[in-house]
Amino acid sequence: MNEYTAQPPGLLSGLWATARRDLLLAWKRPGDVLNPLFFFAMVCTLFPLAVGPSAEQLEFSGPGVLWVAALLATLLSLNSLFLTDFEDGSLDQLLVSAQPLPILALGKTLAHWLTSGLPLVLVSPILAITYRMPGSVVPVMMLTLLLGTVSLSLLGSIGAALTVGLHRGTALLSLLILPLAMPVLILGANTVSLAAGNDVYTTGIWALGAYAVASLSLAPYATAAALRISNE
Amino acid sequence: MSLTLSADDLTLIRGERCLFEGLAFSLKAGELLLLEGRNGCGKTSLMRAIAGMLSLESGQIFWNDLPVLKQRQVFHGALVWLAHRTGLKGDLNMVENLQFEESLRAQSDRDRDAVYERLGIERLKRLPLRSLSAGQQRRVALARMLLADVPLWLMDEPFTNLDREGRKLVMELVEEHLAAGGLCVMAAHQDVDIDAPVTRIRLQ
Fold first, then answer.
1. A226 within a domain of the structure (yes/no)
2. Residue of chain B with shortest Cα separation from A232
3. If you count Cβ atoms within 10 Å of the first and of the last residue's Cβ in chain B, which end, N or C, has fewer?
């Protein structure tokens, strides 16, 4: 007779396993990862063509354009977060997993951020230079984007979980997420503008950090609850 | 410790239709619960409700006499779920897929290679799953189930896409699992020939 005494692996192993699997999948299908990045770069390069290349105007609009483009690129990539899992039955497996669902959802969101948010942050200095952003402001912008994309990925995972059962849920997802994403956009873009104008900007960084921490501690639970509801 | 899965007064309404009402069952270690009925009669819904993925209109499912909703992690740690959609990633190979499961669930001490060989998938280890046939993918899903060290097997249409030997193999595996003190809930519309105490529920 089997006594079934083996213990399930610990919590962290569930987190890493989901993150690792999604990273592996992204590695095997690099097209999905590069899409949002292309979108981000395209919007940032097209904008000066439309509004004119005068140095003054570029310096003024740079932070705003970069931030709006980053926000839209993140929203674009969120739709696929749980979609393939929903279609191939992996989501059911996650729902009946021996590991807590918030941990697994966090693992997936971590992989999503590493493949969509982080590349944006790394590419942004190149685009910032085309907007004549001073060298001293570039690190500030990268830091705001770093904190901001973490929040956006986490908040977006709630929306992605809510709309996973709906077909063509992209528009609804964006609509659901926008109210939560707006503070990130306002704080991010204004912090960079303040830094560019040699004003005190640290408050914005702290606020963005607080927003990221709040999302990190609450979003996984909301995502897990949303996944259970939308997969009924 | 004796393992039990039971349910009391289950009612499920989907849309305008009442799929079942006042349904009850009780299952002990070594027993099989067989759900029968035509297509669309609610077998899968009942399976999903047992797994805790679907909320019921009324009634409760009990695992070892405690409601599963009050001990979801314990209950989910004691079951594996095999359904029509296998939940395996087509872009990953068999080993990568099974490694993922290993990090999530308690694993049995069975010899891996012996399990692969028994299921006839030992030569498919390094191929991406999408290049395998539907039947072979299902065998990989069966490997996931065999390698987990859990008492409760939830199988929704386990015979789909399998050839005759495959179907026979599934019945043998379930027999062995039950003989070792496991439990199994199975939804099937084929004839099932398993030598174990069977409770049948026929959904209308």
1. yes
2. B54
3. N
